[in-house]
Description:
The protein is 63% helix and 0% strand. By secondary structure, it is mainly alpha-helical. The chain has one domain (45-189): Leucine-rich Repeat Variant (Alpha Horseshoe). Helix 3 crosses helix 4 (60-75), helix 8 packs antiparallel against helix 9 and helix 9 packs parallel to helix 11. The longest helix has 23 residues, at 168-190. The protein is globular and about 45 Å long. Belongs to the adaptor complexes large subunit family. It is found in: Endomembrane system.
Amino acid sequence: MNLSMSTGALYNDQGGAEAAVEAGQESTPTSLSTGAAFGLFSADFKKNEDLKEMLESNKESLKLEAMKRVVGLIAKGKSASELFPAVVKNVASKNIELKKLVYVYLVRYAEEQQDLALLSISTFQRALKDPNQFIRASALRVLSSIRVPIIVPIMMLAIKEAAADLSPYLTISFQTLCLLSSAWTQIRRSS
């Protein structure tokens, strides 16, 4: 077996080896025959402690890799709610891809962890004033998707400000939000 072939196979089998190397950890699996010892959804995370450490790292690449894994766990139907404090710290990240993954997580778990979800609201309020229309629209969508009753006044203020925004992208997001809001109101009344 040539060296490049074995290295490529080892990398593919390990999945998250790059993140472990960046963290300065040795990434040698306990047995090469296990194949997915460090795979994307590995059981070796010991109750997500490795993910928590990656989320609290100073390296954006580790945080991004961890959030991809967390969203992957959610997609597989596994609970990642114990990571909420570590995830919510990353809501203010400058990395757009990381921020989007954190938003996905927040929409999923904010209702269960309402007190901690409130910590992210000020970040959304700042994002609603960002010069980038895509960031403003994303913040508006996420803020309106978080089902925490105490933030309704903040959400209504954000919607009011969005109605006056001249950005085409934000206008479309606002119109979609209004349609969804109307549908939710009708569903609640009929229940």
